[in-house]
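Why do we care about 3D structure at all? Because function follows from shape, and shape follows, mostly, from sequence. That is the central idea of this module. The next example makes it concrete: a single protein chain, its amino acid sequence, and then its structure expressed as tokens.
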Amino acid sequence: ILANITLTDQNILEVGCGRGAGAAWCVRKYAPRSYVGMDPSRNVINLCQQTYSTTPRLSFMVAGLKTYLSFQNESMDVVLSIETTNIFDETQAVKEFVDEITRVLTPNGYFLWCGLCNVDGSSLLIDYLTANNGFIIKEKVNITRNVLHALDIQSNSRADFIDRYIQSADQEYCRLLAGLPGTELYDNMQQGRTEYWRVVFRKKITTDTPLI
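And the structure:
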């Protein structure tokens, strides 16, 4: 999802950062001006703050996808969101989120998204953004084959970790979460019932005509 996008010396916001490993990797690799990871879970953000407290230019905050973002207008160059489609289950939630990222993104700023979609690459969020006059699609690519390949490479180590460290009652859920072969998540992609897409949106420049 980061291919062909300049992150160096940019202000970046990640929506749904989880445990922060991806955020920390981006900061180390691309050296942005600032990188803020947000997640609705206080426990997750506490973990992020403890683990990456010494990482320069990286910070974390508790915020839900439906929360008004505490950033100034046009203060973020890139908004990044990975695997958050399932959270947007109603049009109003999508509208509120898109309004917020539109507000905080700089002119020509980017909204980067990847995750599971319907077989035609559609979802409530993607369809709304596609129809939104404030954004244009720069790239939309089906990467299901890449994701399946990555899951295959990691399947043995993930399965071993779950068997060793996860209690029996939670193992089935963790296998699904890890996308192990044989789980519904993996099989749906392999058999073409769902697809995994990456989409790059760019915010349009709008010119306000001054009143005379």
